Amino acid sequence: MGSSPARRRRRVRGPAVAVALALVVAGGTGYTASAADHERVVNGTFDNGTSAPWWTGAGTTGQVTGGEFCVAVTGGTTNPWDALIGQNGVPFEEGESYTFEFDAHATTAQRISAVTGEGVSPYRQISKQDFDVTAAKQHFTYTFTSALDFPDAGNGQVAFHLGGQTFDNTVCVDNVSLVGGAVPPGGPAPVTKKVQVNQTAYVPGLPKHATLVTDATTPQDWALRNSAGAAVATGKATPKGTDAASGDPVQIIDFSAYDTAGTGYTLVVGEDVSYPFDIGVQPYKDLRKDSLAFFYHQRSGIPIEAQYVGDTYARAAGHLNVAPNKGDDAVPCRADLACGYTLDVRGGWYDAGDHGKYVVNGGISAWQVLDTYERAVALGDASALGDGTLSIPENHNGVPDVLDEARWEVEFLLRMQAPNGMVHHKVHDAAWTGLPTLPSQDPQPRRLSAVSTAATLNTAAVGAQAARIWRTIDPAFSARALAAAEKAYAAAKADPNRLADPNDGTGGGAYNDDTVTDEFYWAAAELYTTTGGAAYRADVTGSPLYKGKSLTTRGFDWASTGPLGDVTLAVVPNGLPPADIAETRSAFTTTADAHLAQIATQGYPAPYQTSDGSYDWGSNGLVANNAMVLALASDFTGQPKYRAGVYETMGYLLGRNPNSYSYVSGYGDQPVRNVHHRFWANQLDASLPTAPPGVLSGGPNSGLQDPVAARLLAGCKPQKCFVDHIEAYSLNEVTVNWNSALAWVANWAAEKSDRAAGCAVDYQVAKWGTGQTATLTVTNTGATPWTGWKLGFSFGGGQKITNGWSATWAQNGRDVTATNLSWNAGLAPGSTAHLGYVASSTTADADPPAFSVNGEVCTRK
């Protein structure tokens, strides 16, 4: 809906300097650098009409005018560095030569300084050169050798000092360039495998695919080796040509027929060997917990204790008024708002790698964590989500731990409600804090941003959801949550166009959203499902988004929340007509089919499509949300193709991608380590940790909205726009809503693979020129009786069933179901049912690749 979250959520980091020596910079250059020249400045020509990632300091305001970056400088300052502009994240190498050049002119002649050095304390200087700027545009240049070393672009900076004048002035710069060094900006690229696999595990009974990068056009021989190095399966890869999203020439390796559980498998093609992986029936049992543990790590207002996270990740509580920290117990509104009150907004989750707490991102995150439980209760198995399953302070209190964790955020959302029922959009520091900064060491004052309709509706939706979940667990909390939700919804209806300010991005992301139709639909759906109220029902059924109209192949996120309402209406019992619920569920299967069709064309299976093929900020979160759509399609239909699609998608996130990274920390042999975070900042401070296991990186982003990404990845193909660097915040940031998506899907995947298949199918087919006859034997291989069963599969070609026996047969396109008859419904362990069909077909039509019973993929006899 509207612009992408990457554009809406763009974070413009200000200078890390506070005083003294800022440093040099501007972006691109009129000089055309060759690859060996290693241009260090981003956007030095300002040809795109923007100044990002340039910042302005105290006493300066700037904008791009006529292709130049023109800066208004307030007079009356004492020192040159009292008014400055600059760019952070500039790499320097000790002993290497650099040439700094730029064009400049000013309304009134003055002296300026071009400076390079360190962007954080102690602000050591590398070089400084003074230039006299006049009304006539001039070209300036100087060369220097660096005595400092910032090769990974972590702390280097360039800046212009414009202060020390008695008069106001305007200074314009253009064609800024800093060329030199031996190592490419961002450092050497990581080793990329030619054979890309899910670095964690594959599930028996499901498709198992890998991607081979090769220029060869003929099928390549592959071998699957066990941990001892012995070949246990061989075959030939299938050429796919050049993959559009990555630019890689690829072939697909299919080793689905091999189902022997084990660890340390590798795929080998010639001299190329994949990262090791496992084959097993419980590959996601740890990830389901680790992905939820992320939220305890992100808690605000409580110490993160070693007994729950270990000594490495323990830290003091943040924002509780313990010096130098400012507290969240009495936070005023931003000075220009003058709201006349303060709010106690302690608690909640820090949104991302910074110390901000945002209602519109917290809303979808809390909802998704709660829905992980609510969906499991309604359609799956919630036994692994009970009390005592997570390592958090509230375990063993008689309430499922997943609900305890979500409540920490729900309580915060309720505290953000203003007296009039509207909800403040966010709370965060008055200015951006530097990297690294622990929450307890953050000295910034805290401020509430304005209320917004979107934030108000997020609170209404989550409050209503919480009210029904806690109705019998904690009736008092349930009533309080519902009262706040109904008050918020009424306030939003009375003030429907209070939109967040897109320019409110100092100290925290803006999170502006120009369309709130989706939030109204979502909130109405939650309130109707909880209360059954006629007015809420009318708002649901009268919405243009009703019955899955907002589901798209791009996916949903914090700014596109309509599908959240659809999930609730399709999963949680309510009073809507069954035909409407069926139509909503059909919207999920239609979208899921589009995802599967896309995956079939890809070298790397990422169910995610934008109109221009680009990847947005947080693409991995969108990919995970689309895996959720596939999972729900599996829940609704029992078709094994959707279940297989979820595990294929998990493979992409866990290493089967063109960057050879597992985008989940702690999983695989090459996981992300240097996510953008102010505590998990080991890359900048060796005394601090890397991210704990189970944290999802934002992933590839074509926008490249940070200096490290822009320097290193210009011209990258969408899936290759990624680097594991702490300063690459537009690629490697972490957020609560991306991890809530991972947690939902990981818990679903764990549930569906927690046990060996309880069914087996023997499929025999006889074919002739225009038809085929198949007989199937379905066996209950589990330990409990079946009181009913439904077989599901998908044809591999154009087969059409013309007759069937011993079951009720139904076909929709390639998808087929066979439901038990009354006389063969009950199957005891070890018992079998025999059924079959006649179909029109050709000899080229492929057999079904997999079968499921009641949604569980069966082993093949």
From TrEMBL:
Top-tier EC class: hydrolase
Signal found in the keyword field: yes
Catalytic activity field: Endohydrolysis of (1->4)-beta-D-glucosidic linkages in cellulose, lichenin and cereal beta-D-glucans
Keyword terms of this UniProt record: Carbohydrate metabolism, Cellulose degradation, Glycosidase, Hydrolase, Polysaccharide degradation, Signal
GO term, biological process aspect, one: cellulose catabolic process
Methyltransferase found in the keyword field: no
Entry EC number(s): 3.2.1.4
SMART domains xref list: CBD_II
Active site, UniProt feature: 676, 724, 733
Protein name: Endoglucanase
Protein source organism: Umezawaea tangerina
Phylogenetic lineage: Bacteria, Bacillati, Actinomycetota, Actinomycetes, Pseudonocardiales
